[in-house]
GXWXG domain-containing protein (Aquipuribacter hungaricus), 188 residues
Amino acid sequence: MTTGPARPAGPDDGEGGPADPRLVAALEAFDAGAAVMPQDLLGRWRGSEVPTGHPMDGLLEAYRWWGKEFRSTEDVDPLLFAGRDGTVRALDPRLLPLAVAARGWAPRSAALGRVVAVAHPLLATRRPRARVRETEVRGVVGAAMVYDHLPVVDAFRRVGGTAGEEELLGLMDRRGDRVPFLFRLRRA
């Protein structure tokens, strides 16, 4: 399986304008990273955003995104969020307004994040909502997380750390987005 935008960062943002230098730098770091195989992802990972000028910049962290959990290649929680009490829950991606968020229409504030956290129990799931496959992304075959019900694929590259303390760079490719969203994962 090959996912789109497979081309390296170009001189424009997909609309003919200049690409954000932060996006270009993040994609260069992703391209320089080592391939990650599916079994390398097993475990729980703490996430953080990589600012690149993407419309979703700042959104996940404002809404208390915590990370991802890979129990097996068939049993993945793609979106873990921390509740007001610090409890980490897997939320069902189908119930989150990602399409609205990806267009930059969702407000970003810690106060709103605390309010949204109240709804976490209603958005929670006990079922896996993604799986992992080997996929070619940007010319390299490696692990990619495929969402079960959304047109989203997250690809991963190792960019630092040692065994047990790895650091991964993730690239979210969502159908319809002009540019990818990037994030970091550190083993929890």
